[in-house]
Write a structure and sequence with these properties.
- This protein is mainly β and 333 residues long.
- The chain folds into two domains: 2-138, Rossmann fold, CATH 3.40.50; 156-326, Beta Complex (Endonuclease - Pi-scei, Chain A, domain 1), CATH 2.170.16.
- It contains four helices and 22 strands.
- It has helices at 52-60, 77-87, 102-108, 122-138, and strands at 2-5, 18-20, 28-32, 35-38, 41-49, 67-72, 93-97, 117-120, 156-176, 184-191, 194-199, 214-219, 223-225, 231-233, 242-247, 252-273, 279-285, 291-293, 299-301, 310-315, 319-321, 324-326.
- The strands form four sheets. Strands 1-2-3-4-5-6-7-8 form an eight-stranded mixed β-barrel, surrounded by four helices. It has a six-stranded antiparallel barrel with strand order 9-16-15-10-11-20. It has a two-stranded antiparallel ribbon with strand order 18-19.
- A hairpin with a 4-residue loop joins strand 15 and strand 16.
- The longest helix has 17 residues, at 122-138.
- It starts with a strand and ends in a 7-residue tail after the last strand.
Length: 333
């Protein structure tokens, strides 16, 4: 993490990385015409956030520039968090202006990731240098990285630890514009770190015809994995969204949502754990036609499951912020 001092370079301090000045020099950073310069080299963009549109513009730059320098009409943590989430796991780094000492810690540890540079005046310098020191002493290299845009996902076996009444709530059926094959479904879960593979309605039933375009996905609060690797709550989905269909082997394909069907239904609450004893759960409609996949790839009705049964899920070590995977800690129960 860096500290950029908005002051004349005559003010000397060993821990200042760059000086933020009006004129270009090799030891300073400056802005001109909406662009960010180090010396005479353009290194990024300056975005003054005074509206939702400007925040979205800043997020759209993620992965396209080396630096995004954020300033604010009214300083706020939420735009910083949203831009940090967009830029996480991309080459783009974020510099944020702070105007009060207390803002240094907030920006420096936003989403437990933080910006990459604090831009401050002499009044905020001490606080900024403390945050820099804390960041440099606590940052650890992530051993695992998740790329959810591959053609294949690594699925895992998880064991059911509890089957409970989920009471009554709003259930979402996802109807696709493509036909599903037996063995395919959608990844659904109430915790972002674990999504169970919910089978499509591709199997004949005694009392209702099959719907090979449909996945009875579960409760409105659940997550599902989208085509771009982001997640959405089921309540946020709309027709036209691109969603990721997954097979037992983890082979993925992209399908389009044709419509959502939301109705009040009774739920079963399935709790399960992985081999590391990480806990997760999913709420599914209490109906024979709602199925999950077991370790052999067989589709099992949720009404016939027992404690100790093994089902298939997609597990990660990532948390989510507005649907984007970020390398920050969180607890979901």
């Amino acid at each position: 993490m860096e500290v950029w001092l908005n002051s004349n370079p005559a003010f000397s301090h060993d821990d200042i990385d760059f000086y933020f000045t009006a004129e270009r020099s090799e030891t300073s950073i400056s802005i001109e015409g909406g662009y960010l310069y180090r010396g005479n080299s353009q290194i990024g963009a300056h975005v003054h956030i005074n509206s939702e549109e400007r925040q979205q513009y800043a997020r759209s730059l993620a992965g396209t520039v080396e630096w995004i320098y954020l300033t604010f009409e009214d300083w706020s943590m939420i735009p910083i968090e949203n831009v940090v989430a967009a830029c996480d796991q991309t080459p783009t780094r974020i510099a944020a202006e702070i105007i009060e000492p207390l803002q240094a810690h907030g920006a420096g540890f936003a989403l437990e990731i933080g910006v990459d540079a604090l831009v401050c005046s002499e009044n905020e310098l001490e606080a900024s240098l403390i945050v820099k020191s804390l960041r440099n002493s606590t940052e650890e290299t992530q051993d695992e990285s998740i790329d959810e845009n591959h053609d294949t996902l690594s699925l895992s076996e998880v064991k059911i630890t509890s089957i409970e009444s989920g009471h009554t709530g709003d259930r979402v059926c996802i109807d696709l514009t493509s036909l599903l094959e037996v063995g395919e479904g959608l990844l659904i879960g109430s915790t972002a770190r674990s999504l169970a593979l919910i089978h499509g309605e591709t199997i004949e039933s005694t009392y209702v015809p099959k719907r090979p375009f449909r996945v009875n996905a579960g409760s409105v609060e659940a997550y599902t994995l989208m085509a771009d690797g982001s997640t959405k709550y089921l309540s946020e989905l709309i027709s036209g969204d691109k969603i990721l269909v997954v097979s037992m082997q983890g082979i993925t394909r992209i399908c389009t949502i044709g419509r959502l069907k939301i109705e009040t239904r009774p739920f079963i609450l399935l709790r399960y754990s992985d081999e590391k004893h990480n806990q997760a759960h999913v709420l599914l409609q209490q109906a024979e036609t709602v199925r999950v996949l077991d370790e052999n790839g067989a589709a099992c009705s949720v009404t016939e499951l027992s404690i100790g049964d093994v089902i298939i899920a997609y597990n990660t070590n990532q948390t989510r912020h507005i649907g984007v995977s970020v390398s920050a800690a969180s607890v979901e129960r």
